[in-house]
Amino acid sequence: MAFPEKMLHPGEQIILELHPHWWALMDGIGSLLIAVALGVGSLVLGIGVLQWVALAVLVLALALFAQRYLRWVRTDFIVTSERVIFQQGMVSRRGTQMPLEKINTVDFQQSVFERLIGAGDLVIESGSERGVTTFNDVRRPMDVQQTIQEQMDRHEKLGQGGGRPATVPEQIAQLADLRDRGLISDEEFETKKNDLLGRM
């Protein structure tokens, strides 16, 4: 679900909007695969009781996967020109917002396996009451770290009067850079580009 534009401040722009890495779905996917294998095995063996057990396990696995998928869809990590936003939840929602000027450091953590699949954790230290916040299963955390740092630098220059709002061509170039780094898809690039052009 796209972050609603009515929630943005005047002049604020969405730079990056991500769901968690697909690895966050693996427990649901793994349970589903095991349930399917059990179902196939029960059909081959032809044991009636085992088939009913396999059916029950499959239903539970489907319910678990559906719950994990809905949570994945309803989890958003957003970087704007002014803040970092995290939102999660299906029926009830929870979230946190960090103004760029309050962020002190942005670090990332990756195991060897996470480097192979392009996942990791993002650790943001801010001057808020939360102090240090960790965001798990972030896609391409090093690129996200760089994007946040770029926006922090730009925001600081604007605050000191040494910068200016990015023009539409500059914003499109930023989007193209995010697309080339694999942080947004071609479809997301075209949608955001057309939105920017429509505001001219």
Q: If you had to describe this structure to a student in words, what would you say it looks like?
A:
There is one protein chain. By secondary structure, the protein is an alpha+beta fold. The protein has a domain at 12-17 and 89-198. The protein has helices at residues 26-45, 48-73, 112-117, 141-159, 168-180, 186-198, and strands at residues 14-18, 76-80, 83-88, 94-99, 103-109, 119-126, 132-139. Helix 5 packs antiparallel against helix 6 (186-198). The chain is elongated, with a radius of gyration of 21 Å. It starts with 13 loop residues before the first strand and ends with a helix. The mean pLDDT is 84.
The string of secondary-structure elements, in order, is EHHEEEEHEEHHH
By secondary-structure content and strand pairing, the structural class works out as alpha+beta
Report the radius of gyration as a whole number of Å.
21 Å
Quaternary status: single chain
- The CA-CA distance between the termini, in Å, is 25 Å
Shape: elongated
As residue ranges, the low-confidence spans are none
Report strand order across the widest sheet. Answer: 1-2-3-4
Largest sheet: 4 strands, antiparallel
Q: How many DSSP-defined strands?
A: 7
Global mean pLDDT:
84
H/I helix tally: 6
The helix fraction, in percent, is 40-55%
The portion of residues forming beta strands comes to 15-25%
List the helices and strands and how they pair.
Blueprint: E1 14-18, H1 26-45, H2 48-73, E2 76-80, E3 83-88, E4 94-99, E5 103-109, H3 112-117, E6 119-126, E7 132-139, H4 141-159, H5 168-180, H6 186-198
Antiparallel strand pairs: 1-2, 2-3, 3-4, 5-6, 6-7
